[in-house]
Batch of 2 targets.
Target 1
Amino acid sequence: MTEVAPARFGAVEAGGTKFVCLLGSSPDDIVARTRIPTGADPEATLAEVVAFFAAAEAPAAVGIASFGPVELRRGHAHYGHITSTPKPGWRDADLVGPIRRAFGVPIGFDTDVAGAALGEGRWGAARGLSTFVYMTVGTGIGAAAVVGGRPASGLGHTEMGHISVPRQDGDTYPGRCPYHGDCLEGMAAGGAIAERFGRPGEQLDGDDLRQATLWEAGYLAAGLRTIVYTIAPERIVIGGSVAELPGLFPLVRATLIETLAGYGVLPEHAADDFVVPAGLGGLAGPAGALVLAENALLAENAQDTAQDTAQTTVPG
Amino acid sequence: MTEVAPARFGAVEAGGTKFVCLLGSSPDDIVARTRIPTGADPEATLAEVVAFFAAAEAPAAVGIASFGPVELRRGHAHYGHITSTPKPGWRDADLVGPIRRAFGVPIGFDTDVAGAALGEGRWGAARGLSTFVYMTVGTGIGAAAVVGGRPASGLGHTEMGHISVPRQDGDTYPGRCPYHGDCLEGMAAGGAIAERFGRPGEQLDGDDLRQATLWEAGYLAAGLRTIVYTIAPERIVIGGSVAELPGLFPLVRATLIETLAGYGVLPEHAADDFVVPAGLGGLAGPAGALVLAENALLAENAQDTAQDTAQTTVPG
């Protein structure tokens, strides 16, 4: 009896500074991996990605989890492109096209944060759940909602870092979002902490650390309240460097329950496993790109089956 | 040749004051309808619902769109129940059980606002879209997100009226939400307008009408910004009595674009068909209950097919 090897997928986490690529079937079965600096020329960078996979093994499908904004609407002429990024050279860059042309296999495509959400849902802190939110709090704040197993997107994609949050008592910091000033990202991303206290969060101690953690928990809880009321997730997973502030999670959980104020609250909202740290760290994005690849392959197979069935049942 | 009649479904919009029931296949094919006052005893009210359908025609499936909060998790012991309502007699009332027992057909179940969203998606202002939000602004504010064709819910259900919104310039009204004070519902539902101006929105004129419409547009736009950033809907449909304030929609559209401040904005967000009035009025809920019924029937048929296939392919 021959053992059937699992399908190997290509995964690309396309970031503003580097492309993380891996070939495998899961985080436990990574047969090749590399990092490619994000150059000024998208075509050259993507040629390196293609060369990496070509040198390893032709993937059964490829998933791309990309920095944005990106075009996710399948029918759109720019589907699979980065759109209006300020990053030199990358405006309107086609990510999906070159990789599809190189390998002729199904390509999955979504935002980097949607990819990380799928990774956490398959192998990380949201395993087994179908409706949950993954949020990353670092240089910026991004979040993706997975609803019924798929990242939600309709017109554009979610930008949950930019929801409005009420100002915390005693905080006079104006906020650093160039668009909205004091939105969640403007008040609670890493740079806001550093600007308020004159040094980054991971260097704070004493009263500064206590105050920073209190405000951070307040802003995140305010954001999570909005997420609970707009998406009703089964769990919220938080990753990113700011999530490592000591004592942050218990404070976020307690403050969230306080700000929900008894409305629409279930016992599960107060449990320790409702707001949890991410499980995969930096691997979430590439792992999620594997899920995007698999989903693309499954979708194509389902379509083929439907066409075969139609051909069988329609008399010739 | 005999013509096959479309399947007739039972639809129940379960409200705090009345149950609206209809039997049909679409808003254009309603063969029987009635209104049953919501009594103090759920069993008696549901017996009247059952008697109405029994007297008309046995439905192929029944959809129930209910006031809440309700339990939507299929595996939960209280699935299909109203849960913690303050309405006397209705706490923990089982809506699905009695109707399923009476007819032995598939039962669809969701919130009243999710039902209305499905109705607008099938026959109203969101026709043909798969990811959109329906919001009703009246005595309260409720909204449901349909994502990939299904109302989103995970733990509990959405309560979008209770997201936080920044205070509008010059508005000193404290807000009337008993839980959160100045959340969206607290500032922008019908009662907030009436309390600010000493008379209901539909009686305002002159400067009061102008000011009320300006603030209302500001609060709704702030809420919609959060919805755009958390769900990325293709369209937002707004119904309810407050949506009838003269001149409200153009102002909401313009204010939304202003508050998005150029971030994550596509040309489609600025189009007149992004934020639109509801198309079905009071029929949205019962029409959506028809969709819930149909979805329940389709789900059961799909399950049967899967079981048949499994029985065929597994050797006996």
Note: Chain B touches chain A through 49 residues (CB under 8 Å).
Target 2
Amino acid sequence: MLKSWNDGAAKSAIVDFVGRVTAQDGPDFVPAEARIAVFDNDGTLWCEKPAYIQLDFLVRRLAEQAAADGSLKDKQPYLAAAAGDLSWFGDAIAKHYNGDDSDIKILAGAVLSAFQGLTVEQHAQRVTAFFADATHPTLNRLYTACGYTPMVELLRYLEANAFTNYIVSGGGRDFMRPVVAGMYGVAPEQVIGSSVGLDFNDGHLMTTSRPEFLDDGPIKPVRIWGRTGRRPILAAGNSNGDIQMLQYTQASEPPRPSLCMLVRHDDADREFDYVAGAEKALDEAAAKGWTVVSVRNDWATVFGD
Amino acid sequence: MLKSWNDGAAKSAIVDFVGRVTAQDGPDFVPAEARIAVFDNDGTLWCEKPAYIQLDFLVRRLAEQAAADGSLKDKQPYLAAAAGDLSWFGDAIAKHYNGDDSDIKILAGAVLSAFQGLTVEQHAQRVTAFFADATHPTLNRLYTACGYTPMVELLRYLEANAFTNYIVSGGGRDFMRPVVAGMYGVAPEQVIGSSVGLDFNDGHLMTTSRPEFLDDGPIKPVRIWGRTGRRPILAAGNSNGDIQMLQYTQASEPPRPSLCMLVRHDDADREFDYVAGAEKALDEAAAKGWTVVSVRNDWATVFGD
């Protein structure tokens, strides 16, 4: 297993950690039911550049709404969506990570209302239809082929060692669920993500435009506890929004083994090379001894082909 | 299995339903991953009379707070707590189910602030300490011995048939988790319940006095979807707060098999005899063909002794 990982510090850290927590007679043994591993999704399990995959799904819907309702055409983010201008969206998110929430609020309102009034099953059908043929804008592959092969191997390796994996993402819970079973072998009940409030109406659950959770930063550990009632022993992320999830994993009292991993995107040839949005996380990794995974050096393949 | 169930319509309904959904070649087959069963807790898995078990835990804490802070002594619910007057609390809940929320709001404020400022681990320790020796006021047994033996058998029977069971209770999520593993064999990640908001602080999760979820009525199906991303095929409850959870289980489109059960407390000799708070649910059961489980007639034993 872990065939798509090059020999090196990151692979060794994983194998060593799993060996220690599964060694029944060793000092670091962790019983199977407490072997909880948590994974960010965008930039950790699948590609997040040049834009979040969910943003493509959203922009298509906003353009559809702008085409159907003339009053939206001159307003952001519908203006940018109708023009196919993804940079406005990327800038809004970059501003957010730098502390300026002006555009993200406009975007959030549109995100929240984009799919309101559907049953959760109807929403899932839209997601499934999107992933059936939507392709990455520069990598020339289906989005469903944009998962990182070494990370999917890691999920399997952990399962084989009786871990339970959870995805803990700022992305939409109900956007990920229909596709991650096929891409990663992760069941819907193992997906924690952002969500809108739902209304129960005549036997069915309907989407609303009310925010429920924005599953990012300090909310990630809150949601992990809410879902599992446990503190993870392994966490993997790639950006500033993952810092608290990794801190939570590491800060157990009394202390017990943990593995905190940060994927570093440094491979412009095979994927992307960027640190924007990950600066603080990389500083924290250095300070706290987290394992930094270099895409360029640690992964023998990125997408398995 | 199901040895503590008397032969009769309820037991037959369970055995027939499980047989149908597990018959690989039959028309009602449901794959294992979709065999989700949801159970209310108070009055469905454990005894809820003469008062909710969590109310005892709360009243002890309110009395402690009243003793420590004189300014609380003359105010409800501290006044009732210090006097050991449980009827005020029971009345507040009964009023709530009859549409009068005046007292429940006062109670909710006290509930929310009673345990604020603890780490989730400290809170769990308080719960564990409470259950170590707290006894039921009239049944002469530990609260941990107040689970219904036939329902625990049903949980095991469903697990043996590859169901995944969830508790979906208006009771506190983090009040149930430390004790239900031992009582029912249900893991913390299978517990859905009411909760306060948590704050992430220096690596740890701290309780607050902010409400997060009141997991009752229409919120139950919302939380089931949020947790599992699936619609259950079996649901069991006992009160008006379970109606929507059972409706949700039954209303699948396209239709597929479901079993909706309502425990009817009609056994004053072995447990309690009451319908207060369950009137609408019993009406709905009759109208929708739900399986009513009579404690008196369907259970050979209530507590297994």
Note: The longest strand of chain A covers residues 191-201.
